[in-house]
Write a structure and sequence with these properties.
Oligomer: heterodimer
Largest sheet of chain B: 7 strands, antiparallel
Strand order of the largest sheet of chain B: 1-7-4-5-6-3-2
CATH superfamily of the largest domain in chain B: Nucleotide-binding domain of ferredoxin-NADP reductase (FNR) module
Number of helices of chain A: 10
Structural class of chain A: alpha/beta
Number of domains of chain B: 2
Mean pLDDT of chain A: 96
Radius of gyration of chain A: 18 Å
Strand content of chain B: 35-45%
Helix content of chain A: 25-40%
CATH topology of chain A: TIM Barrel
Largest interface: A-B, 44 and 36 residues
CATH class of the largest domain in chain B: Alpha Beta
Distance between the termini of chain A: 29 Å
Order of helices and strands of chain A: EEEHEEEHEHEHHEHEEEEEHEHEHH
Number of strands of chain B: 18
Strand order of the largest sheet of chain A: 3-4-7-8-9-10-15-16
Helix content of chain B: 10-25%
Shape of chain B: globular
Mean pLDDT of chain B: 96
Low-confidence stretches of chain B: none
């Protein structure tokens, strides 16, 4: 039996089930190209909005033993300038997924249509950034608002539509069902966990924005729980994200019910070799246990 | 690591608008690495480590709000420091020519001091004028051959430090050149090294946010100055299409240098 890491995600073919998470090294075409060279199965861009946006002043990052807290504030060059970056990124030969942020459905539609023109393989709606006023999580915790956005965008594009959700709500499953009901093709879970760091010496929060999003191994257990619950709540594919940086982490997410796994903080903590290392361990595990594909173990942790 | 609060133990005025702040630091630093320095309520910026050891140091030139705030700090004031970050210099055996322009001398000086044998390291210091020449005495303690230039001729030779380095390369045989300064200096230094067939390493600078290899704001082509650099080989720099021409602004838009 030959074992392959090839993964099908709503019609998008990935050479392996790892992909770059949004927000890390995804602001320029050349960075995305390097991620492709490093072995990721796909790469998600930095979240792009209508206009150029500077983001917050520093400090925008706090480094912890087991993760990061960031409040970048959605910096980005805007949709117009991003066309050039996309054309460079596509040379990497892997699917490029366009992450988008906006406040209203009409703007999401404008952005999604442009990204489809630029050659994106799928759209990932950022309904979950915890630190940008008026965007992300602020629109992503209301199932009706989310359904409305998904419905509008879905009607305007031909490529798959993913929704990246926040764990900072007790309504995660309701929001996911709203995505599915409105025609969304996949759920990406989870974005960062809203968090804070305080400096005792300075007697103030460290981040300029005061609060930020916690990522890395610190939130893996939260991500796994969310994916596990989502797997039982919806039928559309789930893409796991949150603290994965080894093949074991990827296996845990697959077993919880994810078809693919995004890696973000792991790029900072382990370096760009994180994708190849995770894939190497993954294929060894599959071979040793007689599986032919990652899809064979998706959701196996849902024991009776 | 969490930004660690450190108390400034020494403050030294090195030149006109150029100040060194010394503080205790436990983490081991390699020559050419940098730290992210937090001035609470103002900003957090990358700074080359200019002094390595138990009493580490940074050397700051006033160019904007954050550097002005840093320069105005006094002994006893508290700073946040995280790091060190970046790759640092690769110090090979053989003869080394260290070339620093202005506060670019900060990482250059730690490289020169990182080479124990003073007969195999030479230092070329350049600045716009006499007031901005820094670390000359320090360099003389680390090297037998230290030369200075100023753009206006107010100290040392009149001319650019690249012209001086070019002359030195024509007279002496070097195995590697280490350079840090404004991008235009780095660009001409790269060319001079190529003309003289001497390999070089250059420490580069870009707008930096996270400092830890995540956000991608400091990329030149696909390379992150914070995590893949800040020191790049001459071959790497030659392949960079953006070097000497473009940088990225806060929004990640490409703008002319």
């Amino acid at each position: 039996m030959t074992t392959s890491l090839e993964t099908d995600l709503c019609g998008t073919r990935l050479r392996n089930p790892t992909m770059l998470a949004s927000g890390v090294m995804g602001e320029t075409g050349d960075s995305l190209l390097r991620v492709a060279e490093a072995g990721a199965g796909a790469a998600v861009t930095k979240s792009i909005g209508l206009e150029p946006r500077k983001g917050y002043p520093n400090p925008t990052l706090v480094e912890l033993d087991d993760g990061y807290i960031n409040a970048m504030g959605l910096p980005g060059p805007g949709i117009e300038a991003f066309g050039e970056e996309m054309s460079v990124a596509l040379k990497g030969g892997i699917p490029i997924i366009a992450s988008l942020f906006a406040a209203i459905p009409e703007d999401f539609v404008t952005l999604a249509v442009r990204m489809q023109e630029y050659g994106a393989s799928a759209i990932e709606l950022n309904l979950s950034c915890p630190h940008a006023k008026g965007y992300g999580m602020e629109v992503g915790v209301d199932p009706e608002a989310v359904a409305n956005i998904v419905m509008h965008v879905k009607a305007a594009i031909d490529i798959p539509l993913w929704a990246k959700l926040t764990p900072n709500t007790h309504r995660l499953l309701d929001v996911a069902r709203a995505v599915e009901g409105a025609g969304g093709d996949a759920i990406v879970a989870v974005n960062t966990v809203k968090a804070m760091a305080i400096s005792v010496e300075a007697r103030r929060p460290v981040l300029f924005n005061r609060t930020g999003g916690l990522s890395g191994p610190a939130i893996k257990a939260v991500g796994l729980r969310c994916v596990y619950e989502l797997y039982e709540a919806v039928d559309i594919p789930i893409i796991g994200v949150g603290g994965a940086e080894t093949s074991r982490d990827v296996l845990e997410y697959l077993m919880a019910g994810a078809r693919a796994v995004q890696i973000g903080s792991g790029v900072g903590r382990k370096g760009l070799g994180v994708f190849q290392a995770a894939c190497g361990g993954l294929i060894r595990y599959l071979e040793e246990n007689g599986f032919s594909s990652p899809s064979d173990i998706v959701g196996v942790a849902h024991v009776q | 690591m969490f930004s660690k609060a450190v108390k400034i133990e020494q403050r030294v005025e090195e030149g006109k608008g150029i100040t060194t702040l010394r503080f205790p630091m436990d983490a081991k630093v390699r020559p050419g690495q940098f730290v992210m320095v937090w001035i609470p309520g103002v900003d957090e910026i990358p700074m080359s480590v200019s002094f390595i050891g138990a009493l580490a140091g940074i050397t700051v030139k006033e160019v904007g709000e954050a550097t002005r705030a840093l320069s105005s700090l006094k002994e006893g004031d508290v700073l946040g420091v995280r790091g060190p970050y970046g790759n640092g210099w690769h110090l090979p055996p053989g003869r080394v020519l260290c070339v620093g322009g202005g506060v670019g001398m900060a990482p250059i000086m730690t490289a020169a001091e990182g080479i124990a044998d003073r007969t195999r390291v030479d230092v070329a210091i350049g600045a716009r004028n006499a007031g901005e020449i820094i670390f000359e005495e320090r360099a003389r303690r680390a090297s037998d051959d230290v030369r200075t230039t100023t753009d206006d001729g107010s100290y040392g030779l009149k001319g650019t430090v690249v012209a001086l380095a070019d002359q030195m390369m024509k007279v002496k045989r070097y195995d590697v050149v280490l350079g840090c300064g404004p991008e235009i200096m780095n660009r001409y230094l790269l060319k001079a090294c190529k003309d003289n067939s001497v390999p070089c390493q250059l420490s580069l600078e870009r707008l930096m946010k996270c400092g830890a290899g995540l956000c991608g704001s400091c990329v030149i082509d696909g390379l992150r100055v914070c995590a893949d650099g800040p020191v790049f080989t001459g071959e790497q720099v030659e392949r960079m299409t953006e070097f000497g021409r473009w940088k990225r602004d806060d929004a990640g838009l490409r703008v002319s240098l």
